[in-house]
Structures are given as C-alpha cells and as structure tokens.
C-alpha cells in the first residue's frame, strides 16, 4: 500500500495544481514533490536492507486486480534495484521544480501539473510488478513529456516532440507485443491469463530458445529505443535540445533509465537463453554507440546537443554492463543509471542556467565564462569531471564496473586464452565478451575526455566570449567573482553568477556525486543480492539451452524469489560453465 | 440483436408472440414488401444524389431509412421473429430525435451562410 | 675562464677519492658475488612470508593523505568566502608540512621496525564487489595504505618538496592574491592528496584514483591562466594524452584482477611467487602469456604519466602552468609516478620476457630524443621540460636494465635538483615579466639581488649535467649507466644513455652560460609568456588597471621604466634549502645499504621482491654474465670515470660555444656551427615535428571520422527514421485529392460502392 501512496502523492498534487490559482502552482508542486521525496525517505528507512532481493512493500495481485479475466492488476513491490531508482526519481523531482522557477513563466499550472503526473508515472514504472501496469506507466511518461517539449521547448519543438513520441511509442508497442505474446502463450497453456511479472518470467524462460529470441528481440527493441542504444538514438539529441531544462533533466535523469531498467528487470530474466546467445551482438552495438556517440559529441557546436549525444555514449557503457550479465557488470550498470542521472542531469541544469542568461547554447557565442561566473564554472568543471569518470567521483565507479564486467565475462578465460588454464583465472565469469570488448569500449573513456574537455575548454576557459548585447557594460567592473552586488545582466532577474536557489539545486547533486564516488560500498552491497539472483538465473537458464524441454516439469520453478538472501549468498559459484554441452546441464535446470 | 436479446424479457415477449401468431408469410408476399422497400430506397437515393437543397436531401435520407425499416418489419414477420419489429420502433424513436437535431443544424447553417445549397459547403476538403 | 679553472681544480682534488671508492666498490661486488645466490634464496622464503601476511599499519598513517585533503577543503573554503589574503598559502604550508612530519615519522618507524615492512593500514571499504563465494570471486578496493620502504622513499620527497614549493609559490603567486590564489592552492593540495593516494594505495584501483587525480590537478594547474588559449589547450592535451595511458593501466588492472583474483598488492605479490619461482628455475613456459601481458599494459600507463615515447608530447606544453606547478608536478613528483608504478609492480615486470627490455629501450630512446630537442630550444623553461622528459627516460632505462635502485635514486636526486632548476627559471620569469628566451637575457646571476638564484641555478645545472663527484646527479646517473653496461643485453642502451649524458651536460650549461653569466642584458617579457593570460599580471609595482586581455604594447614602451624585481625571502629560502639538499643527498649514496640509503630502502620493497628470482635466472643462463664489462673493466667502476668525463666534455663544449667570447645576449659562437648540421637544428627546434605527426595521423583522422559520423547520423541513421515517418505522410498526401469535401461526391461514391457490393453479392450468390 505504501507504494500506491507514493505514486498517488504526485498525482494528488497534480490535481491540486490544476484547481488552484496559477500563482500557487509552483509551491504546490514543490510540496507534492517534497512529499513524494519524504515518502521515499520513509520507504528507504523502513526497507529491509538485510533482504534486499526480496520484494518489499508488496501490493499483491489479488487485492489489486483491475481486469479479472485478463489477470491485469496494479500489483507493486520493490527490491533494492527498484528502490535505488525510485530514490533517484524522487530526488530529481524537487530539483526540477526548483530549477523551473525562472525558466517557466507561462502556463505555469499546466506545466507543474504535467510534471507531477510524469513523476507518478515514473515512480509507477519502478514499482510495478504487473506487466500491463508497467507498460501503462512506461507509456504514460510519454504524454507529459510530449506536452512539456511541445509547449515549453525551443524553436523546433513541435518536430522534436512528435519524433520523441512516435519513435519511443513505436518501440514500446513492439515491447508490448513481446509481453503480450508471453502472456498469451502462458494463457494458452494454463487456461488463465496473468500479467504478473514473476509468473511470466518463470514461464518465459522455459520457452524454447528460438521463441525466447523473438521475445528478447521485441523487448530489446522497445527498451533500446528508450535507452537509447546506437541506431535508435536519433530522437534523443533533438528532444534534449528542444526540451525545457527540467524536461531535459528528467529525460536524461530518469526517462532513459526506464529503458535500462526494463532491460535488467525484464529483458534479461525473460529470455536468458537468447540473451546469452545474443549478448555479443548487444555488446557490439554498445561499443559502436560509445565511440560513435562520443566522436559525434566532439564536433557539436550546441552545448546541449553535445551533452545529449554524450548520453548515447554513456548509456552504451551502461548496457554493456548488462550485456556481460555478471554481478560486476549489472551492478555497475545499475549504479551507472543513478550516476548518469546525477551528473548528466546536473550538466543539463548548468546549461539551462546559461541559456536563461544568454539565450544561446552555441559554443561560438559563449566562452571563458570562468571569468564572469566562477561559481557556475566550478560546478561545470566538477560535473564534467564526474561525467568523464574521474575516480573519486561517481561516474568512475560505475564505468569501471561496467567495463570490468565486460572484461571478465568470457568463457575463454581459463580455456586457453593467452595460456591460462582452468583455475588460473579466479576473476573470470561465464559470458561471451572478454578483454577485447572492454579494451575497445575503454577507448570511449579517452573519447569522453576529448569531448567534455573540449566543451569545458570552450565554455569555461579561454578568453571571455559573450553574445552581442551582453557583457559590454561589464568593462568597468571586470573583476573576479563579483556577483550579486553589481554586474546584473540585462534581464534584471538573474545576477551574473548563480543565485542561492541555483546553487541549492546543484549542491545535493554534487554531494551525491562525491558520496557515490568515495563510499559507494553500501550501495553496491545493497544491490548485490537482487543482482546475483538475476545473473545466476541467467547463467543457469541460459546455459541449459539445448537441454531445456519445451515445458519444464512443475518443480523446476526456481525457488530463488522466495529465498532471496540464501540464494544471493550462494552467488554464482555453483553455476555451471555456459559453454558445456547439454548432457552435463540437465540437472542444473533445477 | 444480441444486445436486445440479452435484455431480460425482450426475448420472452417474442417467444410469446410467436406462439399465438398466424401462419407464416408466403415467399411471394415478402417479395411485395421487398419491392416497396427497394422502391422507397431507390427514390431516396436518387433524390439524395440529384437534389442540392439540404432539406430535400435530408428528407431523402429519411426515405432510405424508412425503406430499411420496411424491410426489417417484413423480414421480421416472415421469420416470425418479433425482434425486428421491436428494433424498428427503436429506430423510429431515434430517427425522430435525429431529425429534430438535423433540422436544427440545417437552420443554423442557413442562418450563417444564407444558403442551403450543398455544393457550397466543402470545408472538409482534404 | 676562471670558472673552468675552478672546475678543473675541483676535479683534480677529487680524482683520488673516486678511484679509491671505485676500487672498494669493485671489491665489495666481487666478495658478494659468491655469497649472493645463497643469500638471495635464504631471504626469499622470509620475504614471501612478509608479503603474504603484511603487518597492520597504525591508523595515524592515514593522516598523510588526509592532511593535504584538509588543506584542499580549507583552500576551497577560502575560495568560497573570497579570501583576499595569503591565508590559503599558509594553511597549505601548514597542512603539507604536517603531512611531511607524519611521513617522516612513518619512515622512522618503518626503518626501526616498529611498523612492519610491508604493512597495510585500511581506512574504509571503498569498492567491494563479490560475485561468488570467497575473496577470490570478488574485487576489493579499500581506501587502504600499503607501507613499505618504497612508499617511504616516495612520500618523503613528495610531501617534503610539496611543502617547500608551496612556500615558494606563496610569493610567486602573490600577484594573484584575491583572484586565482585560492584556486591555485586548492588544486595544489588536491594534487598532493592524489599523489599520496597514488603512492600509498594498497591496491591498483586506489593507485588509479591517485593516477587520474594527479592528472586532473595537472589539468587544472596547467590551465591555471585560463584566459590564455594555449594554456587551455595544453591542459587539455595533458589530460587526454594521460587518459590514453590510463586506459592501458586500467586494462592492466583488469587483467590482474581476472588472473590473480585481486588487485591488492599483498595478494598479487603472494600469488606471483610461484611464477617467480618458475622464473628462477628457468621454467619460463610455466608463466602464462596473460601474466606476461599485465606489465606491458601497466607500462602504457606509466609511459603516459611519465611522458615517455610515444606519449611524452604533453609534458613540454605543460609548461604553460605557473612555474611552481612545473617544478612540483611536472618535474619532481607526478611525472615520477610511472617510475613508481614500474618499481611497485616490479615482480610482475620481471615475469615478462619483453616488458623490461621495452621499458629500457623506450627510456633510452626518449632520453636521447628529448635531449636532442632540448639542445635546440630557446625557451629556458621548455629546455627544462625536455630535460625532464630525458631524465625520466634515464629512470625507465634504469628500471629496464634491472637497476631499480639506480632508477629510484635518480628519481630522488632529480626531484631536488630539477625542482630547483625550475624554481630558478621561475624566479627569472617572475622578475623579468615573463621573459624566458635565452637570447634576450644574459648575466642575470650577477645582477643585484639575483645571487641566490644564480648559485641555485649553477648547482642545479651541475647536478643535471652530472658534474663528477660533487653532485648527486652524477652518482645516481652513474648507477644507471653502470647498470646498463653491466647487463650484457643492454650495452646498446648504455651507449645511448652515455651519449645523452653528454648532450644533457651541453644543453644544461647552454642555458647557464647564456642566461646567468656573461654580459648583463635583458629585455623584459611582454607577459604573454606564462602570465599574460591573467589580467592580474605580475608586475607588482604597477596597479591592476589592465584592459581586457594581456597588455600587449607594455613590453617595449615600458622597457625604459622596467626594473627586474629580485626574488624575496620565500623564493630565496626555498632555493637555498634545495641547493643544500641537492648536495646533501650525495651523502645518501654512502650510508645505508650497500649501494647507499636508497638501495637499502629499495631492497626491502616490492621493487626487489623478485630480486632472487632474477638473480637465479641470470645465473641459470650460464652465470658468466652476472656482470658484463666495459672494455674489460668493471662496468660500474669504469662508468665513474667515463660518465664524469662525458659530462665534463659537454660542459666544456657549452663553455666554448656559449660563454667564451660572447658579447651580446642574442648571439654566440654556436650560431656559426649551425650551417654544419644542416636542417637538423631546425628540425630539432621544431621538436622533430612529432606534434604535427600526431595531429596528422591521429587527431585529424578522428576529427574527419567525427564529422563523417555526424553527417551519417543526420542523413542515414536519422534519415531512415524519417523515412518511416515519411511513408504515411506520402500516402496521405497522394490520397488527399480524393476528399473533395463536396457532399455529392461522397454520396455518389458511396452509392457506387454499394452498387459494386450488390453486384458482387449477386455474382457470388449465383
């Protein structure tokens, strides 16, 4: 029930915003967001951190059934993976409201109402345990976002909004087809319909390999558009460039994570056999995306577009971690979702602050802002470094883990690769990626430094460049760090450097960046059990390829979901090697 | 039909009617009704296609409507299934409401455009 | 001429002790020859035990990295509160000085055995990922410190020099008080923190943290004068080139983790012992290729950070930063991180047949290449930068020819004298408004107030040139040269290094003779050099009412009024301390272990864990080559004379070409020789066009690829998407005319459709 309350809080606030006078809209939205954040805080506090793999705060299927004959319900629960992303969403909510104070001055009610609805939908995605409910929330995020882009965006907003909507909608309809197929085949066999995630997951992984391939293909297509993975990314730069600042923050911070979350939560466990088979192809797409996206960033002129393309590269790392389907990679990937949300979200906020002052994002018209905006510049360099993956800040931990996950995930280790015999490589895990994938993806770290330092070098450092009409009057007071008292720019509203509100928006993000970079250990520990549960299942079920009968005997349903702690502790150690042939593996199908 | 059948009582009434009904209608008798119905429909259709006045055209559509009603009643009687007749009574009621609304719209249209010539209205051009 | 006389007298008086020492060395070596094998094997077991179970270090050791971090936070707070005084400088000196004191305490306790060597002090759990049961199926990277004598050696000079240079900078950066002063000290402290993580970390990931951390600080400090595009570019270049190296390091780290199941030094070294045993028994086949690949990957990282071929190009450009930064980061400490890494991972390097030869050759070739470039430059700071690259090459060569002691000793001595050289150059730059061109300065050493700088420069130059006997640089370089000639496979490297030694002496004294002695002359810089980017230039005498960007035109007009301002107490004190230290470290050659204090430290650290194996391997290869000879003489013994003579010749050539008979600042006898070498001088001055080459073969293709990708993205990847959108759009617009909007049209088509339907029904019914 607590999760339902969490989801309903922003929704209720949205209704209140809609009926209240416009002058109150922002404060009501803020209260709503803060209430949701407080509720999340309460959930974090009452979450059982000893059994992180167990589904908690469950709203069970029977009591939440919506359409009986189809087995559709609004069942909800969270484990630690979901909890992390709920926390990220709840955290970014108030930040986005605070960041919109001066940027959004027209149709305030509509704006905040939709933003609250969006918040509900995003929270719903991370809590849902019913596939139709998940899908509904997943799709419902599109509408508020569409409206935010098309009403408060910049010049090309109509096209961007339409493309964003149609592209991601098409993708997720295909994902829906995959989900419905699994549910249909279950109903076909058992005579009753259900969309319960766990039931369908257990059913889906018993499907034959070829069928799993189709299921994976459908889910992957839907989620890959959302992530976005390399060939499906073109809506992203457009949508980001046109969206208002808060929209970009939510888009980068949470909406993209819906795709990666879907991959971890559903694509990976639904089709383990297919995932094991196709993981090299997924990794290849990621690697291409990392380098391709990174290089494109390097030749951008629009700062926001640069950061948008950087998301393509960054999310490539994230999915690479998933493709390695080991604890290291998947944990890294989940951390990546959070870290990317923090650092890229902050970069969009920073760019928005500049845009509010100068009404341009072109690097030809902006330069050397360190001289005029030292506080802004400090934050810019900080978050750029977090994004580059500087050790000690958050980006590094997750990037390293994703890369290392890919590095160790190879059946070739200990099978004669570079002279190693079995037992000589304790760090190896089953998989099909290995050192080369990590090495090529690793060059993305160099490329990331290239484009982010290019941006920082242009915008923060160098001789001061401002668009015409700005800064001319500043000659007399060309000091360092003078802010507030003099040097108001010609908007009269915003001082030259950041206001207290803007600093207040950035500081929590910066603090989290440092915390997750210096002491990520508790978070990693919290993620360990559910991740181990997922990956162990993938290895076990993925390994049993040829040996798997069409319909498993009744007792083969893994008991892991009820015995999470024990399962997680056992980890992957007893897992058989994926490459082994069928005969050995019959018993591993449990 | 199914919808009506599912309403309790409707079907029972039909069954009762069937029980006390005279002998079924002959095939040739049906043909007469069909002829009337077809003639009405054809008149309505030709009128609709040839006339330009919206009120006349509306009357023509009513004519075609009633042609369908006649056919429905005839078949109902022919099959000894009173559902068709029930249905026509519904249709008549709805048609009356619809006629009232349509005429109101035509009047409004005339007030605005000072014309009832159908050829002058092509706002829905693609 | 008096100068030459003095030198020859000194040389003559010292000739006899050197001979005596050399003989005793030879005797020592011979006596040890026999006992070595047994001794090493005996020590081996003991060492393995120590490595496998390192002691627990006391928690106060964490103060060494934490104090600079405190300094960073305090400086950052000063920046946040816009402190307009020298407060951050004093806070920094206090924190770093305290850190140095703690380091000294650590050294004393380690050397007296109160802290086990090695030992580990764990702060907190940083990253721990377990994917199975047991520690083998996990990666643990604690914020923990690994303390052995190698750590002590490095931390002593890192914290010591950082304190001194922090003091120097308090005066040097005085012009920026209230502007970038706090920013400078924040980055400075952060650098020391990162460096101590790098050196003290007990696992490769913490080393990596420090590794990239120093890279960040280097980036921030090179780009300190951020209004100057060249400084920004240089910072960027440094960071990116270093990142290429870092990638190698990261991959090496991952390979280590996969193969050994851990990235903690203590575990790695323990698990490497069977391989070392295999090596010592000559069973090279038992060492998997993976293990041999690890050092090669780590080496790439080392080459990036320590500016070796092919990744050295960032260091000369890094001179855009303020001089104290050049001295601390780009001469004394950060650039030795690569040497540290190789020394730290020495047991792994020994396992590879190729790694150490690659290290040796890279080092030697870098040394030679950088020396040739250094000979042809005119910017004295850049000459020093190239000499740093060259000297780092020596250090790597030393590691490669299996004299880790020599390399470490050279790191140690080089840190002092090179820092001093940079600080002297910085004092000149500071006093002459950014002038660094050796053609525009002359006789600085004899100007009033410049005596300390002149002497410091002389001491530094003598050390760098390897002036025999009285300089520490001579002793450390000699150790490397001796090591090279003593190794039968590395004689070619010995020759390269020997030639480089001569070139080094020449270009070093070229600077000294041109700038610090001779006729007094100067042209002040226009502050475009080094400081121009900053509005708050450096001439304290003037007020700060500059226009927007660097005050061009200030140069020549102001020449008439320009008075070079001599350095103040802070700069002079630091230079004096360093000058004394540069001499004092000679003493370290003669105390402690059999090859001096440094060898005593190195022998008890990871840089020597593999020593016994290496020795046994050499012995098993026939044993006769344990020491090769130099034309029949013991290599070490011979080098004491030969390298001294080579250095002396270099100085003499510089004397003849750049001092004798020179009457103006701009011209010297060397100019007459230029036609003889043809275009070589020009090419060397153009740095052999390596930057241009890299630009052409790496940067430009990448840029082209990026633009092409961008076009592909817009035209093809997005084009296909738009095509999907275009299909319904096209269909719709082509069907559009059918919707006339006229009621009768629709009615007619409906009737027609009905007729067709009826027709079909009728046909079918029939």
Task: Please tell me about this protein's structure.
Chain A is mostly helical. In chain A, 65% of the residues lie in helices and 2% in strands. In chain A, strands 1-4 form a two-stranded antiparallel sheet. In chain A, strands 2-3 form a two-stranded antiparallel sheet. In chain A, strand 2 (65-67) and strand 3 (72-73) form a beta hairpin. The radius of gyration of chain A is 24 Å and the shape is globular. The model of chain A is unreliable at 472-491 and 545-590 (pLDDT under 50). Chain B has one domain (26-124): Helix Hairpins (Orthogonal Bundle), CATH 1.10.287. The longest helix of chain B is centred in the last third of the chain and has 31 residues, at 83-113. Chain B is elongated. Chain B starts with a helix and ends in a 13-residue tail after the last helix. The model of chain B has no long low-confidence stretch (mean pLDDT 83). Chain C has helices at 2-52, 63-80, 87-111, 149-172, 181-200, 204-222, 229-260, 265-280, 289-305, 314-317, 323-332, 337-344, 346-351, 355-375, 380-400, 404-431, 451-465, 472-486, 491-516, 554-557, 569-588, 597-603, 611-620, 635-658, 670-673, 680-685, 690-735, 743-765, and strands at 55-56, 119-130, 138-147, 441-442, 521-522, 629-630, 633-634. Chain C has a three-stranded mixed sheet. A two-stranded antiparallel ribbon of chain C has the order 4-5. Chain C has a two-stranded antiparallel sheet with strand order 6-7. In chain C, helix 2 (63-80) runs antiparallel to helix 3 (87-111). At the A-C interface, helix 7, helix 12, helix 14, helix 16 and helix 17 of A face strand 2, helix 6, helix 7, helix 9 and helix 27 of C.
What overall form of chain B do the CA principal axes indicate? elongated
Spatial shape of chain C? globular
Radius of gyration of chain B: 19 Å
Structural class category of chain B: mainly alpha
Bin the strand percentage of chain B: under 5%
Biggest interface, CB < 8 A:
A-C, 81 and 70 residues
Give the N-to-C terminal Cα separation of chain C: 130 Å
Overall average residue pLDDT of chain C: 82
> Which class do the helix and strand fractions of chain C yield?
mainly alpha
Protein topology:
The complex is a heterotrimer of chains A (590), B (126) and C (766).
Chain A: H1 2-19, H2 22-46, E1 56-59, E2 65-67, E3 72-73, E4 76-78, H3 80-99, H4 108-127, H5 131-140, H6 142-152, H7 157-190, H8 197-204, H9 209-226, H10 235-242, H11 245-270, H12 272-298, H13 303-323, H14 327-358, H15 374-388, H16 394-408, H17 435-459, H18 500-518, H19 521-543, H20 564-570, H21 582-585
Antiparallel strand pairs in A: 1-4, 2-3
Chain B: H1 2-6, H2 10-20, H3 27-50, H4 54-79, H5 83-113
Helix pairs in contact in B: 3-4, 4-5
Chain C: H1 2-52, E1 55-56, H2 63-80, H3 87-111, E2 119-130, E3 138-147, H4 149-172, H5 181-200, H6 204-222, H7 229-260, H8 265-280, H9 289-305, H10 314-317, H11 323-332, H12 337-344, H13 346-351, H14 355-375, H15 380-400, H16 404-431, E4 441-442, H17 451-465, H18 472-486, H19 491-516, E5 521-522, H20 554-557, H21 569-588, H22 597-603, H23 611-620, E6 629-630, E7 633-634, H24 635-658, H25 670-673, H26 680-685, H27 690-735, H28 743-765
